[in-house]
Amino acid sequence: MQNKKILVAAAGGVMGLLAVLLVRYGNPANMGYCIACFLRDISGGLKLHRAETVQYMRPEILGLITGAFIAAVYTKEHRAVGGSSSLTRFLLAFVSMIGMLVFLGCPVRVALRLAGGDLNAGVGLLGLIAGVFIGVQFLNRGFSLGKSVSQPKVNGYIFPAIAIILLILTLSGASFFAASKTGPGSMHAPVIISAAAGLIAGILVQRARFCTVGGIRDFIMFGDTHLLIGFLSLLVVAFIGNISVGAFKLGFAGQPIAHTDGVWNFLGMALAGTGSTLIGGCPLRQLTAASEGNTDCAVTVFGLIAGAAFAHNFGLAAGPNGVPAAGQAAVLIGLAVVLLTGFAGVYRSKSVPGGVGLGQNG
Amino acid sequence: MDKTVDARGLLCPEPVLLTKKAIEKEKGGTIRVLVDNNAARENVTRLAKSLGWNITITTREDEYEIVLTK
């Protein structure tokens, strides 16, 4: 058990360290790793949206999937499963992503922004905790997306295969993907360094079952600090790293790729927190589980990518100057979607002691 | 009185939550928990141990039977 704790702390710590290094090598500030931002960039790289400043096939993500897949196969944990409300997961991921892009970051970037001294991320963290707390209330009352079942093996290989093919194309310098000339999408570490960092993170995250939302959730639900240690380790190591390379700047104003609108920072992350809790984990965990052969989580990742494309095609995402009115409306609609889904999932059926009826609540 | 929690096909936190509910209800005796992924096995085991239950784990093809006794 103690080894597992060390593993979780190590996974968070290494991610924090890699994040600081990736920024040194060219990634945007406080964005060594951000699953939401990078999925949005990939969404742009695949030309699913036309926002010219955020298009790049981030090798960190492709490497992470590859690493997690290799680790899962090696430890015989790779299994093709699915059939647990995949469309609902797609929807919840879609609206969660809009929340994250209104805040400008996933829970991993909340930690990285805090570690860089960005106090707006503190407001985001409070929103995230509030969201997870709401999600936990639904879980405690029997919200469930139902059981997954084993699927034919091929199902489990599709998602990692797509990532590995895209990684090979990206490493070989394929030029048909969109790539930003200016803005955050144009800022990136050398491809090989990004890919290697992704690979290392993927292996560690898979072995540790690392999950930022899970850390907050388990602490609220069970008083269990196991996964939370990983989140804190990420924060502390990135903080020490930023201090030592002079990348720490405390304050609200003028923070990199951030805005100071507290209300929407809070509500955006509250939406992301609630949605992520209902689907069983943060975007990073969804990526890992999808790499392990979980097709529901693969559909969830596509939901995140689609949500990012939608956010940029319809001008919902925040910028340095704040959140557009359309983005504010989208967050409110998203909150309605997650709350309605939560209530519907709780009151669909009464709980059955000792198990879960297929597709019903436990 | 044997009690079984079938958490196969569920990802955490659900297996842990179902186990916790069973533990709160039973207070003692024997509870069988069925899970089918390593993360769930680790988490259920961690919860049960922290609450002072004894654990034995039997591995079957792609499944784990965790027997909690107290």
UniProtKB/TrEMBL annotation, chain A:
The chain crosses the membrane at residues 7-25, 56-75, 87-112, 118-136, 157-179, 185-205, 226-251, 263-285, 297-319, 325-347. InterPro entries: Seleno_YedE, Sulf_transp_TsuA/YedE. Keywords: Membrane, Transmembrane, Transmembrane helix. The keyword Membrane applies. It holds the Pfam family Sulf_transp. This is Uncharacterized protein. Signal peptide: none annotated.
TrEMBL record, chain B:
Gene3D superfamilies: TusA-like domain (3.30.110.40). Residues 5-29 form the UPF0033 domain. SUPFAM superfamilies: SirA-like. InterPro entries: TusA-like, TusA-like_sf. It holds the Pfam family TusA. Belongs to the sulfur carrier protein TusA family. This is Predicted redox protein. It comes from Pelotomaculum thermopropionicum (strain DSM 13744 / JCM 10971 / SI).
